[in-house]
Amino acid sequence: MSLKYVTFNVVDGIARVTLDRPDKLNALNYQMFCEIRRVQKMIRRDANIHAVILSGAGGHFSSGLDVRSVMKQPLQAVKLLFKWLPGNANLAQQVSLGWQRLPVPVIAVIHGHCYGGGMQIALGADMRYASQDADFSIMEAKWGLVPDMAGLVALRSLLPRDKALELTLTADIIQAEDAQTLGLITRVSADPMADAIQMATRLMHTSPDAAAAIKASIHRSWSASVRTLLARESWYQIRLLLGKNSRIAALRQTREPDKPWHPRQNGW
């Protein structure tokens, strides 16, 4: 499958991923979902990639799901939502959760609209840098839908429950400064792309194996019990100290994200 709606290139160890359907404000059709997932898998397999910058073409990140496009072909909706087990991630959820499960830091650069499915994808990034004109909405309730693209995985660690409910139930559009005050985004910047490139370059000077372990530890232990957190920290540290820290052998295994994480099976 060639890439039509997502552009992907790697320069000096930094992967640039761009949602590229500007005539539709980067609204997500079925092919975009497939292409995002394909790019995530390509990044996982490439040990030369040390950071990812995720953005949207044409002045907007993404206006959300292209409902009309998807519903024109009901089979596409089925493919987006299908999963073998309830606890697995379907394709719609993988395009958000997949960024968290990469062994490299992912920075979302957000201009203009970041609504609905676009917001869910941005929540999958490790950091979100936004322009001053960016606006945000968890918009699914406006269309009578439940946010079902796994954005809640990140949202529950970013916002208090009442604020998350307020934003999700009202589908309100909020400006970048308010989103930063809430903790929804990392920073507001006059030039978020330049800031993202600067951060990605800084990350290139740290150990990629330590970065992979730190990211895995934080994402998997953030809501875990103290005992689980302590055990996981010790396990990662021992792996690093013993030199058994290859991202290729460990976190870069071609592993379906739906499968339970087990250190003996996955090297970490």
Core attributes:
disordered C terminus, 2-enoyl-CoA Hydratase, Chain A, domain 1, globular, 12 helices, 44% helix, alpha/beta, 2 domains, 268 residues
Q: What is the makeup of the main sheet?
A: 6 strands, mixed
Radius of gyration: 18 Å
Helices, by number, come to 12
Q: Please report the distance between the alpha carbons of the first and last residues.
A: 32 Å
Strand adjacency order, main sheet: 1-2-3-4-6-9
CATH homology superfamily name of the largest domain: 2-enoyl-CoA Hydratase, Chain A, domain 1
Characterize the quaternary organization of these chains: single chain
The overall number of domains is: 2
How many individual β-strands? Answer: 9
User: What share of the residues lie within helices?
Assistant: 40-55%
Averaging pLDDT over every residue, what do you get? 88
Structural class: alpha/beta
CATH topology of the largest domain: 2-enoyl-CoA Hydratase, Chain A, domain 1
Gross CATH architecture of the largest domain: Alpha-Beta Complex
Q: What string gives the helices and strands in order?
A: EEHEHHHEEHEEHHEHEHHHH
Task: Name the beta content range.
Answer: 5-15%
CATH class of the largest domain: Alpha Beta
Global geometry: globular
| Spans where pLDDT lies below 50 across 5 or more residues | 252-268
